[in-house]
Amino acid sequence: MSDLNDDSGFSDGPAAEIPPRRSFLAKAGAILVGAVAGLIPVGAGAAALLDPLRRGTRDTGMVRVTRLSAIPLDGSPKKFTVEADRTDAWSTYANTPIGAVYLRRTDDAVIALNVVCPHAGCFVRHLADEGRFSCPCHNSSFDLDGEVNNASSPSPRAMDALAVEVRNGDEVWVRFENFLPGREEKVPV
Amino acid sequence: MTKLLDWLDDRTGYRGLLNGALHEHIPGGARWRYVWGSTLTFAIAVQFVTGIVLWAAYSANAQGAWESVYFIQNQMLGGWIVRGIHHFMAQATIVLLVLHLMQVMIDGAYRAPREVNFWFGLLLLFLVLGLSLTGYLLPWDQKGYWATKVATSIASMTPVIGPSLQQLLIGGAEYGHLTLTRFFALHAGVLPAAMVALIVGHVYLFRRHGVTVPEGAEKAPDGNFWPDQVLKDGVACLVVMATVLGLVLWTGGAHLGAPADPTEPYSAARPEWYFLFLFQWLKYFPAGWEVVGAHIIPGLLVGVIAAMPILGKWRLGHRFNLGFMVALLAGVGMLTWLARAQDAADPNIVQAKIEADERAARVEELAASPAGIPPEGGLALLRSDPLIQGPQIFAARCSSCHRFEGHDGLGGIPSDEPSASDLAGFGSRGWVQGILDADRVATSEYFGGTDHARGRMVRFVQRGLTQLTDEERAELLPKVIMALSAEAGLPRQAAADAADAQTIAEGREIMQSEPVNCVRCHLFQGVGADDDAPVLTGWGSREWMMGMIHDPTQEQYYGENNDRMPSFGVDEDLSETEIGLVVDWLRQDWYEAPASR
Description:
The radius of gyration of chain A is 30 Å and the shape is elongated. In chain A, the strands form 3 sheets. Chain A has a 4-stranded antiparallel sheet, with no helix packed on it. Chain A has a 3-stranded antiparallel sheet with strand order 1-10-9, with no helix packed on it. Chain A has a 3-stranded antiparallel sheet with strand order 5-6-7, with no helix packed on it. The longest helix of chain A has 35 residues, at 20-54. With 189 residues, chain A is α+β, with helices and mostly antiparallel strands. Chain A has helices spanning 4-7, 20-54; strands at 62-67, 78-88, 91-105, 110-114, 125-127, 132-134, 141-142, 161-162, 164-167, 171-175. Chain B is mostly helical. Chain B contains 24 helices and 2 strands. Chain B has a two-stranded antiparallel sheet. The longest helix of chain B has 33 residues, at 177-209. Chain B is elongated.
């Protein structure tokens, strides 16, 4: 392999003598021309690749999820699928499942918790026997209000509570949002 | 021929190149311990070949990825073997990488003048890990989806650039088409290209420095790469290939889970086995320490490995390096074992795995049905399947009053007592037999929890029917049961209904005459009064049940006598599709693959 270069045409014969000043101009020119030619596709490509950064957060607003009557009276949480219109790049889906929430009655209100674990994004499950939420990935544990209830839980914050409204008497509306995982503060995605 | 080759050599110099490649002089002769690099090159070449074949059938979008992999796996000639080889060779590559790395460590082949080549190797290791990570998502099944979500979540925790990094990786705020197109571009474009460049550099540097002859082997006679070492390399590659093929045949190929569904929990989300140690590792970092666990400590460990050629110059450096690597591997092994052991001991995880497998098997059954996969994709199959969705809807909306075989449809037991009938087998002969049984009609299986417990129907069953003689009951009731149940037209009972057509006709007569005389309250086959007792014509049929759930207060159902049953359809509480799914599930009307296969 090492003697490959010796066979190449470019190294045959003595190099032509070029005056130093012309040599400098030629080198600078070569680099400049090459850079300009190269920057065009690289720039266009970089812009296209960075496109996701310019897409803002999507707010679906309040979405009707269910009726009050569907939420257990005993205060245990129940999982509901949230449906809304959703655009995924080139596809637009009407009224499609976009996520899931746990709904639960407290004394005078309804609370909604996003099912996604604030630690690393797994689907938190409700352990009915133990009366708590637990993440099946890294064992984060939450009480039924979504608060971390175990000091060794890796989750940096409580389960993400979502805005809930009861409209027209018994319709439960939720503002569905996802938040960045792995940080103390809730930052909408 | 010779002339032609001479001409070719004159124009290209290929003989010199071939000589350079094959006639590498090996001091101390060919050895088995030199085969690891060649097996790795072979494994990666296999990944290129199988990968391109898979590429030719794969579709990187959220409604085509799972579907195309299903096609490759189940319908393409030899597709499952190609995918299986790609899957298991990826794992073999990791094993071979570790063996190669340990070989290099033990022989001290990372020390001067081979530092740069060691770094090339380390970069290649990370490229291989990157290929596994990106490849895991591509089938777009539940396993890959949820495991990769953890990986990109960890990326988002990177200080400062994390959120942007995650957004760039997944192509937006959430998983979708662009996540797949980007992962695929990395998996099949960027990473393999970088890999080829690094392998060329790696082999070039290796040739420049030659093999590292182990101590005591210098005196052995010298050998040549061709054919001495090539033969040994070839045998080793064959062993690798045979092992991988054996795994493919033994396991039936790579597994394909149910299609990715962001609304469906997947508790069994675990990364590929060689990442399990990282997964387990993260469990030990409480809130606020994620970055330490996911970035800083792994970064430091990799830093130490990268510094090994320099550390090796120190008097005890080589021993330190070896000890460090052994300890690291032991730690990785320990964490992997812990992850496995904890999952095996967690009944929730075990159950989740069983459920995931059932779902995967069900969607394959549906996809293989004559109706096939619709353009909306495999997930639509599951979302429109009564067997999967029926119990979910029942548990969510019906089980606060009704039960199904005593549970909520999914096996849970609600804390409140049932206040309406148990709907398992609704419409069947067994169910009708129970409602006409004086001992059972007023239990919680039927009207026990409702206002109808004191109603005319219960009174009739408990008093009217019991006044019949035993002979009359034995003669009349079975026919009534068959006749009423036949109204439901249950698909599972179709054969029995057809066989008993004569008895059913007799039963209809009995229903319309004394002493049973259902038409005293019910309307049946155009006869009778309809005073707020449900119409029995078509009772339990799909249409009848759909209407009942839509609005039980209609005249042909309970009218003003309706107890607490909500009008799910009128209130738009359940869509017609959802009502249909529950009804079809209760009527056991779902697709089932033919038994013989």
